[in-house]
C-alpha cells in the first residue's frame, strides 16, 4: 500500500519571515493529520521554517543542491550544509532547473547519487514539454529522464526515491493533465522502474503528479491507481489553498 505524499514546492517565493509565519499556520492546521506532507522553501528560508514547524510531522526539503559536497563552487549549497540544518530531503531535476539553468540528465543523476550517498531522500522530477508531447515523444523523454536520472541507484536505494511526473506544459499554466493522461504517464514510469529493478520496487515507488494541482482537481487525480501524491507549486503558497489539497481524502 503506497501512502499518499503531498508536497509543496515554494519555488522562489517566501522570505524567511513570510515562510515562518506560513509554516506555523500550516503546521497548526495539520495537527493530528497523518498525511505525509513536505514543503520545500528557498534555501535561506529553510532555517526559519524548520524552527516554525518544530514538533510537527512536516518534512522540510530543499528545492535543489550542489553536485559537490564542498569547495570552490560560488553560489552553491551542499548536501552537508542541508543535513547540518536537519534537512534530509531534496527535490532534484525540476523542469525549471532543466529548462532555465540547463541541467542535463547526467548532471541531475550526479546529484541524485550524491544525495543518496549522503542518506538523503530524493524527489526526482521528470516530464515532457508540449512540443515533445505533440511530437509523440512522451515515452522517449520519460525513458531517458528516468533511466539516466536513476543510473547507478541500487534497488535498496529506491526506497529513498520519489518520482514526480510534471508535464512542463501543465506547470503554472492552469492546464492540468487529465487524470487519465497523468495516470497513463505514471503507469509508464512504473513499468520502466519495474524493468530497471523489480516488480516490488515498482509497486512501492511513490509517483507524484505536478502541474496546476488545486483543491478542485486533486481528488480526481488522486483517485487514479498510479497517482500517489502531488507536487504543488502555486497552490502550496497559501494555507487556504494547500490545506484542502493535503486533506483530499476527507
Ligand atoms: P504549479 O502547481 O504552480 O503548476 O507548479 C507545479 C510545480 O512545478 C511543482 O514543482
CATH topology: TIM Barrel
Order of helices and strands: EHEHEHEHHEHHEHHEHEH
Helix content: 40-55%
Q: Can you count the helices?
A: 11
- DSSP strand content: 15-25%
Distance between the termini: 19 Å
Per CATH, the architecture is Alpha-Beta Barrel
Name every ligand kind in the structure: 1,3-dihydroxyacetonephosphate
* Helix/strand/pairing category: alpha/beta
Shape: globular
* Total separate domains: 1
Please tell me the overall pLDDT. Answer: 97
**Number of E strands:** 8
Q: Which blocks of ≥5 consecutive residues have pLDDT under 50?
A: none
CATH superfamily: Aldolase class I
Level-1 CATH class name? Alpha Beta
Rg on CA atoms, Å: 17 Å
The profile of the biggest β sheet is: 8 strands, parallel, barrel
**Cross-sheet strand order for the largest sheet:** 1-2-3-4-5-6-7-8
Amino acid at each position: 500500500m503506497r501512502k499518499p505524499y503531498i508536497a509543496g514546492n515554494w519555488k522562489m517565493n517566501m522570505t524567511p519571515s513570510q515562510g515562518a509565519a506560513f509554516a506555523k499556520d500550516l503546521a497548526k492546521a495539520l495537527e493530528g493529520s497523518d498525511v505525509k506532507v513536505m514543503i520545500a522553501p528557498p534555501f535561506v528560508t529553510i532555517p526559519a521554517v524548520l524552527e516554525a514547524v518544530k514538533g510537527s510531522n512536516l518534512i522540510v526539503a530543499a528545492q535543489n543542491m550542489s553536485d559537490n559536497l564542498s569547495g570552490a563552487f560560488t553560489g552553491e549549497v551542499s548536501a552537508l550544509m542541508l543535513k547540518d540544518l536537519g534537512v534530509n530531503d531534496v527535490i532534484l531535476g525540476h523542469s525549471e532547473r532543466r529548462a532555465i539553468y540547463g541541467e542535463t540528465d547526467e548532471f541531475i543523476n550526479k546529484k541524485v547519487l550524491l544525495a543518496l550517498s549522503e542518506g538523503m531522500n530524493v524527489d526526482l522530477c521528470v516530464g515532457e514539454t508540449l512540443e515533445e508531447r505533440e511530437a509523440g515523444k512522451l515515452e522517449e523523454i520519460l525513458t531517458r529522464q528516468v533511466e539516466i536520472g536513476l543510473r547507478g541507484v541500487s534497488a535498496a536505494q529506491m526506497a529513498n526515491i520519489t518520482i514526480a511526473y510534471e508535464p512542463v506544459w501543465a506547470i503554472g499554466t492552469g492546464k492540468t493533465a487529465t487524470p487519465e493522461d497523468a495516470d497513463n504517464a505514471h503507469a509508464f514510469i512504473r513499468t520502466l522502474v519495474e524493468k530497471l529493478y523489480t516488480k516490488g520496487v515498482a509497486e512501492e515507488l511513490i509517483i507524484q503528479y505536478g502541474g496546476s494541482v488545486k483543491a478542485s482537481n486533486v481528488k480526481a487525480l488522486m483517485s487514479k491507481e498510479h497517482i500517489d501524491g502531488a507536487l504543488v507549486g502555486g497552490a502550496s503558497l497559501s494555507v487556504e489553498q494547500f490545506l484542502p489539497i493535503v486533506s483530499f481524502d476527507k
